[in-house]
Amino acid sequence: MTIAVVNTKGGASKSTVAFQVAAASFLAKKQEVQLIEFDDENKDSETFSNSKIKSSQVEIGDGTDVDEVLKDTILVPKDKNIVIDVGGNKTTTIIIEGLKKTRLYRKIDLFIIPMSGGYQDLKNAEKTYEMIKSFGVPVIFALSRVRNPKRLQFQYGDFFRAFPEAEYLILTESDVVDLSRRNKKSIYEIAFDAEEKKILEEMLDEAFDDDDNRRIAQFSTLLQIYDECETYVEKILNPAFSVIEQKACNGKAS
Q1: How far apart are CA 248 and CA 152, in angstroms?
Q2: What number of other Cβ atoms are within 10 A of residue 30's Cβ?
Q3: Which of 133, 142, 157, 170 would bridge 114 by S-S if both were Cys, CB 3.0 to 4.6 A apart?
Q4: Three-class SS of residue 82?
Q5: What does the pLDDT read at residue 253?
Q6: Where are the alpha helices (DSSP H) in the chain?
Q7: Residues 107-146: tens digit of each pLDDT
Q8: Which residues in the chain show pLDDT less than 50?
Q9: Strand pairing class (110-115; 82-86)
Q10: What is the distance between the alpha carbons of residues 191 and 19, in angstroms, rounded to a whole number?
């Protein structure tokens, strides 16, 4: 499967969605995945060096060689899973135009358009959708930085008015995202890292034995966030993985 995460706006949570959701969805299926970051500036691919998700960065520049770059990236053996994290602004336009010119959009199984809220995010999401809708490839939206899922219709009211029939997944705001960056692996991986959690439990035990309140507070907080990773997988990531799987599979069937 090949998934492309795109939005013409920078800072729309593309890299977070590409890594924590799109790429991690393959880990949940016990499959390998390669994450390709098309970006000349940001290097998120270097952040998660402890992850099973293999990441690399490809610079696009002025787009002169984009046709060959896309062929080298997308035309891989069929048993490879790829997530393409497309940088914002001109990079998005270059990549989408390259996909159109080479017809390689036909090798994409799913487009994900992330948003992080706000009027400008919506305008760019609409622009991105207009650029890719003629491809006939399934599209879902990723609504990130959700403060309260029960008030989603309020926070993302403009989105639901613009796209009343759209399929979407959500990502809530949480400290688990920061823990993921600190541990250099995905939230999904941390949730099942029993060994690391065991070490923290032992360090907390030692802090209690030493009556060291500073360390007690430190390790207690960390363990709480580790627990929250498990809840995040159950309540946020697993439903998101299901949306991706169903949309991609339905697209193939049609």
Answers
A1: 24
A2: 6
A3: 142
A4: strand
A5: 44
A6: 14-16, 24-28, 66-74, 90-102, 119-132, 152-155, 157-162, 175-183, 187-191, 194-209, 213-232, 238-253
A7: 999 999 999 887 888 999 999 999 999 999 999 999 999 9
A8: 253-254
A9: unpaired
A10: 15
